[in-house]
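Predict structure. Input: FAD linked oxidase N-terminal domain-containing protein, 183 residues.
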Amino acid sequence: MDAKTAASHAATVQSIAAAVKTFHARRQPFRIHHGSTNSTRPAHGQPVVDISALNHVLHVDKAAKTVSVEPNVAMDGLLDAVLPHNLAFVRTNRDLEAKVRALGGRKVLYSHAYYDEDDFWAIYGRAWYDELRLKYHATTLPTVYDKVRVDIEKERAKKGLVDRLAVKWPFAGLIGVASALRS
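Output follows.
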């Protein structure tokens, strides 16, 4: 992490810590807003501490194969940070999926899956799923596989200039400040 990024990160953390300490000292309830849900909007009547600006990859240690991140780093931001360092994130995830399968389990489908389509349907069963889609006339909708699969090359290609700038200093900080002012 360069000096400017470190200073910006430290200032953001210090500001958030000061707000939390103030509410704690007053014994006043408050909410933490991390920017990804509506559950912490100020409409609830309690003050809000906005931590949505804490969404950066701080350091990639290629030798240790570790990444230091702030609390709100999105998966695509993490992938963008580690892929240039040849850290085998996807390979590791596929290995984990294979191990879970070997032990008789299944990875819970949350948001991302790195299986190819044949592996995916071998695990989750295509026949019963297709029957269900036919029964409820849902064949024109995307499949579960379509929704959870990740095409890393396609994701990289579609990121435009604005997306790339939004995660770089100082733009990310400015976006965080603008978000805080809007709430």
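Residues 95-154 form one domain.
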